[in-house]
Amino acid sequence: MKYSPALQSATLLKRYKRFLADLQLKDGSEFTAHCANTGKMTGCAEPGFSAFYSTSDNAKRKYPQSLELTKNNLSQLICVNTAIANKVVEEAINNNVITELNGYEQLQSEVKYGSENSRIDFLLTDSSKSDCYVEVKSVTLLSQSDPQSAQGYFPDAQTLRGQKHIRELIEMIEQGHRAVLLFAVLHEGINKVSGAAHIDEKYNALLNHAISKGVEVLVYKASISANEIILNEKIAFIANS
Fold first, then answer.
1. Coil/strand/helix, residue 99
2. Tens digits of residue pLDDT in 102-129
3. Residue 222: exposed, middle, or buried by beta-carbon count in 10 A (0-12, 13-18, 19+)?
4. Are 49 and 71 in contact (CB under 8 A)?
5. By the 8 A CB rule, do 139 and 88 touch?
């Protein structure tokens, strides 16, 4: 996915009220940008980090700029706009980058499914094989105790919604379908991913149960720059008991 035009740079002053971030330009001027991320953004939005933002041409927007990327003190780029995950995953599926998901005739997004009234990120269908339900999660939490370990975790906060999604995937397996939990790693410093048992023990337990029931876990990492972001590298998932 290309950023058009390329993202502009600034310095992050603070992120607050969940959806706002104050940025400073090189000339010292400051402005407030929209931050499309409901998570805690641990290690992703510290004051003083380099920031990269886009500008909307929608004149009705109160905050025309959007915070897209940050760069931490290890010079690692992080995509903090969680809406990007589905876009780069869809692009990767269509370009046959995620080889485990190749060979389906049709891709649909945001399809209602399950007994808990969810919407699956992607439904892959083909007349010759079982339907495949793909749930996408954006991973940006790098180990804070040992950043050099390149260990990433999901989730970064307790998530009842995420727990529901795992139950729905298990339900699809029980109905005879294929179910995939795809972790899209949008942090340059992460080279392996585990469930964050230290943050959401129930989510991690459900994740392990889902794997035992046949839910597949895939982890793909993005290449990130101010010009584009592309999901292009498969990395390891390490189960956390």
1. helix
2. 999 999 999 999 999 999 999 999 999 9
3. buried
4. yes
5. no
Q: What is the pLDDT of residue 38?
A: 83
Quote the CA–CA distance of 157 and 159 in Å, as a whole number. Answer: 6
Query: Boundaries of CATH 2.40.50.580 in the chain?
Result: 8-79
In this prediction, residue 75 carries a pLDDT of 97
Whole-Å CA distances, 129 to 157, 169, 191, 211 = 36, 17, 32, 21
Q: What is the pLDDT of residue 219?
A: 98
Could you tell me if 53 and 45 are in contact, meaning their C-beta atoms sit under 8 angstroms apart?
no
> In this structure, which amino acid lies at residue 13?
L
Q: Determine the average pLDDT of the residues in 62-89.
A: 97
Domain 84-237 has CATH 3.40.1350.60: yes
| Entry pTM | 0.96
Topology classification of domain 8-79: OB fold (Dihydrolipoamide Acetyltransferase, E2P) (2.40.50)
Helices (H), the chain: 84-94, 160-174, 201-213
How many angstroms separate the CA atoms of 234 and 220, rounded?
4
Backbone region of residue 108 per phi and psi (left: phi > 0; alpha: psi in -120 to 50; beta: other values):
beta
Give span(s): CATH 3.40.1350.60, the chain: 84-237
In this prediction, residue 39 has a pLDDT band, given cuts at 50, 70 and 90, of confident
| Amino acid code (one letter) for 160 | L
Q: Distance between CA 6 and CA 52 in Å, rounded?
A: 9
